[in-house]
Amino acid sequence: MGHRTAELRSIAMHRLVAERLNAEVLDRARERIGGWLAEDGPVDRRWALQWEELLNLSTAELKEKLVEDSEGMRDLRQSTPFAGVLREDERRKILEEVR
């Protein structure tokens, strides 16, 4: 699998996340980012801060950013605060379909 395939899969997964954005999903993402920003968090602080900034956008703007095919968003999606939003069968389907 090439790097571009991984990027396209990530966009597809985040497209589904964007469809499910609601207060609960956003709250869980904010909590996860809070953990990242804690001392010795598992994600580089600059990525966490960028995600924190994105979560302050309007829902419409955030949905657009989640699927944006830009270098910055490709980098950010590698450390997504939306883990757990998709079911495993949904993830597998995207992995199989996007080649």
Protein traits:
mainly alpha; globular
What's the overall geometry?
globular
Distance between the termini: 8 Å
If you average the pLDDT, what whole number results? 95
Note the run of SSEs as H and E: HHHHHH
Question: What is the count of distinct domains?
Answer: 1
Helix content: 55-70%
Structural class: mainly alpha
Residues in β-strands, percent: under 5%
Topology, number of strands: 0
Give Rg in angstroms: 13 Å
How many DSSP helices? 6
Uncertain runs: none
What's the story with the biggest beta sheet? none
Give the secondary structure arrangement, pairings included.
Layout: H1 3-19, H2 23-37, H3 45-54, H4 59-66, H5 71-77, H6 88-97
How is this structure best described in words?
By secondary structure, this protein is mostly helical. It has one domain (3-97). The protein is built from six helices and no strands. The protein has helices spanning 3-19, 23-37, 45-54, 59-66, 71-77, 88-97. Helix 1 (3-19) runs antiparallel to helix 4 and helix 2 (23-37) packs antiparallel against helix 3. It is globular and about 35 Å long. The termini are close together.
